[in-house]
Design brief:
about 220 residues; alpha/beta; five-stranded parallel beta sheet; 10 helices; globular; disordered N terminus
Length: about 220
């Protein structure tokens, strides 16, 4: 009779409070915005091989559910990123992977302007309560030592000033490797994207951890 009473109570509790016994780890996917240029958009790649898609697959396999938003636009500069930021933030991301600046460098734009644009993006995104992972770029030496030094300093300075999670070079282990890039020597192929995802994962999971600890 006592066991019957406990069973009746349990059934009644489940009917009255259906969510009371749900697994404690159940959670909504975290919304991640990959905000960048052709490297993010996936120039020359199938959708399956793009950086946002591969990153989402890797995180989901780790048991870290995400909804990935591909905010990459081929050819975009940091100025373009400032212009379309309100539209991008309207998707309510919780994390932004900020990966802009490569086209500024390829066009030889003034590093001071690039820095100011990235700073504006960071400030507005942080004000919206979005966690940022800053993915840096590096200038090739053929642009001259003065330009290279000024451009390369942008990302670590901003990361320090805004206390951001910082991946120093998005194309680490991929740049200038013909086996990992398309024929243009600039855009990674599927194998190159896999390496970028591997290198980027620790920074993104740290951002996810920060969100979960704050909630």
């Amino acid at each position: 009779m006592p066991s019957f009473t406990r069973l009746t109570f349990l059934i009644a509790a489940l009917v009255a409070f259906p969510g009371a016994f749900a697994p404690a780890h159940a959670s909504e996917p975290i919304r991640i915005l990959a905000y960048g240029d052709s490297l993010t958009a996936g120039y020359g790649l199938t959708e399956q091989d793009t950086l946002p898609t591969r990153l989402a697959e890797a995180l989901n396999k780790m048991g870290r559910p995400v909804t990935m938003i591909n905010g990459g636009v081929s050819g975009d500069t940091t100025a373009d990123g400032v212009t379309r930021l309100d539209w991008a933030l309207a998707d309510k991301p919780q994390i932004m992977i900020l990966a802009l600046g490569g086209n500024d460098m390829l066009r030889g734009l003034d590093p001071k302007i690039t820095r100011a644009n990235l700073d504006a993006i960071i400030q507005k995104t942080k004000a919206a309560g979005v966690e940022i992972v800053l993915a840096g770029m590096l200038a090739p030496p053929n642009l001259g030592t003065e330009y290279t030094a000024a451009f390369d300093a942008i990302y670590p300075e901003l990361a320090k000033a805004h206390n951001l999670l910082f991946m120093p070079f998005l194309l680490q282990d991929v740049a200038q490797d013909s086996d990992l890039n398309q024929a243009d020597g600039i855009h990674p192929n599927g194998n190159g994207v896999a390496i970028i995802v591997r290198n980027l994962l620790p920074y993104v999971t740290q951002a996810m951890d920060k969100l979960e600890q704050a909630s």
